[in-house]
Amino acid sequence: MAGEEENVLYDLLVHSEWLQESEAPPRGNRERGSVIVKTISGPFKFLVQYVGYSHSSSLLSPSFLLLVNKQINWQLVVARNGKLLAVVQDQCIEIRSARDEFGSVIGKCIVPKDPHPQWRCVTWSHDCTLLAYAESTGTVRVFDLMGSELFIILPATSSAGDLSYAVAGLIFLESSDNPQCSTELLVVNYRGQLKSYLVSVGTHQSYQENHSFNFNSHYSHGVITVIYHCDHKLLLVGGCEISEKGVSKAASYGITAWRVLSGAPYYKQVTNYEDDVGTSQRGFLKMLNFQGFWRRESKQDGVFKMSLSPDGTLLAVIHFSGQLTLWEIPSLRQQKEWKQDVQDGYDAINPDWVKSVEKRKKIKDKSSFYPLCDVNWWADNAVILARCSGALTVSSVRTLKNLLGQSCEWFEPSPEVSAAHDGSFMSLECEVKVAYKRHRLETNSFDDDEGEEDSDSDEESSAKARYFSYVKQGLYYLTEMERFAPPRKRPRTIAKTYRLVSLRSTTPEELYQRKIDNEEYGEALALAQAYDLDSDLVYQRQWRKSSVNIASIQDYLSKIRKRSWVLHECVERVPENVDAARELLQYGLKGTDLEALISIGKREDGGRFILPGDVDIDEIPYEGYVSPVEEMQRRKEKEAARRQELLQLVDFSMLTLEQKELCRCRLKLLIYLNRLATYEEILGGPHAAERGYDSEFFKKFRSQNIVLSARTYARESNIQALEILFTYHGSDLLPHRLAILSNFPETTTPHEYCFLLPEAR
């Protein structure tokens, strides 16, 4: 059990983004006809809401309608094998493959724009070769992987605006008994009406109705969700809770299991003793049910979404009230139950919302953001939970502990999540931004805009208040009196950004490297400290991406411990200015001093870049402080004595390969530093060198044969540079003096460089 509570180390990756911009009509500027219609129909709607008369859509629970309306317009469906996903957009469905991490589109299905996009339904076939899409009207379209539409299944009955005919469950069965058909498609609408179709795909794409069934006898308020358990051949149906006596606990929560049969009646409810005893009682009570004449309880709970665990032994269910329950399969025995108010972090609000004035307007009713809006499985012992607030957690099924760490991961409100495959799951979120257009001549006419987001919500205002608002608007259009004039609204542009994101588990090493690649150096260093990783990688990347100067040497290079890497940078990298070049070479020399040589010989270095220890001036007594000159002289004498002691510890005839390599680097650094001093003199001294320094020239000059450099200056008739070379590198150049001087062009008079010629004494 200890392994179940281990936290998940994760990373977020954005696979794709879609930006939509639309012009929103100013609220309050309603057309005259619509206002009059609303004014007339207002009393009737008020009476309908108060009395509770049942029209076509009132079959569904108001709590369920509120949750559906909080969902984003687009949908995300991942195939069973995790290799394909479909992103349902406004007028198309994009099919993406895991081969390129869902980065490109391999197929696109064209679908008509739906007036109720949250009520659409999509599913993959068992073999991931077909995609079924259901509109809010109940029409079903079947596509192949390339996005070609194979056929359309029209609903037997439908009514415009009646969302109870929308599809609650769209299921492909794994096989069909009919050899001429490749699969069977089940379509279940919210009224509980099931239709079975035999689908044939190949040379002839067609379908035929197989049978029909109705769950309405058990779910008087309709079916909310249906999923299929292929191993047990069970249909798991969720609906509103049943408050009747004599039913099992699962049935009272609105959950039932139906076994799929090969013949009529095709589906049989899996019951226990309590269900069997209560069946006759429920039949009599339904005859006395006057629900249609009286207002239904708006707080009625029920099943919102269900999800099966990867091994098929547990069913996770989220309810209208935000409750989470776990049930054993196939017995439907309840294993765990967490009401909303006992779930950790259920009332948390995105910290970014608190900082934003625009966001704070939308969280006036915070409790509406608390419920769970989606559920899926991370593993057999952990579920993925998403809330209307955008909070997302991976929680243990034993304790509901958040395995992502101390706090949840924040997404945009009501994200959709898929089941996890290979330690990663997909999520679809929608970020909404509203931009207001301000007219030049209008300055103070929009003072009422601050509260318009909240005042426009039908859920927050009562039917009575809306009716009087319609009357006021109607009076304005009839009388044109300013006292009845509605407040003017600024035109708005709504920008929606849909984002496809994956949350994937990772090893500390992988996440560490990814943080470095994304230049998130602070988080990378925190990971290195937490998991004992090599922090050199962070400083190496920062060093490579920064210009060389004293600050970068102190901030980055001095914190790198690997000696070979530091020395390579000191030797090979040529900074862009002369001061940085000198500082870098001197820093490399410090790491190749006697302390490092001795440590390597004793094998105490561990490959680290070792700097010589400074003389501790605290050991010098107060009386020893004299004039600065004497103090400097005393320091030099002490350092010389220390150096002699260190030299006695080194046997230069018995150096190891690492010690020889260190000496070779030191020699090269000394040569480069000497050449840098020569280059500064050629440029005219340290001050002139700051302006005339050329890093590309110095890179060539410092490693070039000094005789070749002198010949080049002679050919260019650069007498001053040649004089400096003879002065500072006489031991190398004087034996070749005449050969070098013979390279002066014939046009250069010998009187100009006669002082470079040898003289007889």
TrEMBL record:
GO cellular component term, pick one: Dsl1/NZR complex
Span of domain Neuroblastoma-amplified sequence N-terminal? 74-353
* Pfam families with a match to the protein in the record: Nbas_N (PF15492)
**What InterPro entries is this protein classified in?**
NBAS_N (IPR029145), Quino_amine_DH_bsu (IPR011044), WD40/YVTN_repeat-like_dom_sf (IPR015943), WD40_repeat_dom_sf (IPR036322)
Q: Output the Gene3D superfamilies linked to this UniProt entry.
A: YVTN repeat-like/Quinoprotein amine dehydrogenase
GO terms for MF: SNARE binding
- Tell me the Gene Ontology biological-process terms attached to this UniProt entry: retrograde vesicle-mediated transport, Golgi to endoplasmic reticulum
Q: What is this protein called?
A: Neuroblastoma-amplified sequence N-terminal domain-containing protein
Native species of this protein?
Answer: Scyliorhinus torazame (Cloudy catshark)
